[in-house]
Design a protein that fits this description.
Elements lengths: L1 H5 L1 H18 L1 H4 L18 E2 L5 E2 L10 H37 L1 H15 L3 H12 L3 H10 L2 H15 L3 H8 L4 H37 L11 H8 L8 H28 L5 H4 L2
Antiparallel strand pairs: 1-2
């Protein structure tokens, strides 16, 4: 914790991430207006406008007169739910397969790694489009497809660490005294794999948010009228010359969120890696 507090990048990333998470979690209460209320008389109002009905629109309105700030709060919630859900499912699948492949070796290792190679041969966005074309668009569907395109990163890290850990004396000693494979994996392998996996998960969270926004931009993510940062970008691109804020502000929200988790992930990697030059870089 002391190292993390001394890291300017880490604290900046954590601050932006917490602001994003707080806005998403409390969107129901802090949104200044109804994000789904359509008022064509208020369409494309610039930021800071007070409408005739007395409502104030700090970030303006879109082409249907909906409050941009309120929709961004609700869109952040969708991005965070999808991102956290995809990271959890992807890490669960990847770590399970990676630890199994690294500890069992031989055919299990070959099977998982060839499966990973096949997965990596398909572009993530094309795989997502194909999945949604067959399964349909829903929040759960988006979470699952993003998780299924990210498990390989977790599997490779977990496999590499397990290959090294299984030769350590404390693991050999556990086998010698007759501990079952499940107990060895749970007590000796997984605790030593989790730290690098946390770093991977942090970085994958930003990727998941970008992929969810991309799918929503293409109309393949969560469907209207549900607010999403990606769909707000898609709606606002037609009005860039007359209402730049409709697309620009959600785009900036995505950028700052991904930047914050990347900074957070880099700092965690420096802290959790004993070979890193954290002390020289912390200042």
């Amino acid at each position: 914790m002391e190292r993390f507090v001394r890291s300017k990048m880490g604290m900046a990333g954590l601050t932006f991430f917490l602001l994003f998470a707080f806005s998403a979690a409390t969107s129901e209460w802090i949104a200044p207006n109804d994000p789904y209320l359509v008022k064509l008389s208020l369409r494309n109002l610039p930021p800071g406008t007070q409408a005739n009905d007395g409502s104030v629109h700090l970030l303006g309105t879109d082409f249907l007169g909906r409050d941009v700030l309120s929709r961004m709060f609700f869109g952040m919630r969708i991005s965070l739910v999808v991102g956290m859900g995809a990271v959890f499912v992807g890490a669960l699948i990847g770590v399970t397969l990676g630890v199994w492949a690294g500890y069992a070796g031989r055919w299990a290792d070959a099977f998982v790694m060839r499966l990973a190679d096949i997965q990596l041969s398909f572009p993530a966005i094309l795989l997502a489009i194909a999945w949604i074309a067959f399964i349909g668009t829903s929040l759960v569907s988006v979470i699952l497809i993003i998780a299924l395109t990210s498990w390989v990163q977790y599997a490779r890290v977990a496999r590499g660490l397990t290959l090294s850990l299984r030769e350590y004396p404390f693991v050999e000693g556990a086998r010698a005294v007759g501990l079952s494979t499940v107990k060895i994996l749970a007590k000796y392998i997984l605790p030593n794999v989790l730290s690098p996996i946390i770093v991977v998960a942090t970085l994958q969270l930003g990727r998941a948010v970008i992929l969810e926004s991309s799918l929503s931009f293409l109309g393949l993510g969560v469907q209207p009228p549900t607010a999403s940062l990606g769909s707000m970008l898609a709606d606002g691109r037609k009005y860039l010359d007359t209402a730049w804020w409709v697309a620009t502000l959600p785009g900036l929200a995505i950028m700052f969120f991904v930047l914050s988790v990347n900074l957070l992930g880099d700092s965690l990697r420096d802290i959790l890696d004993p070979r890193s030059t954290f002390h020289e870089r912390a200042g």
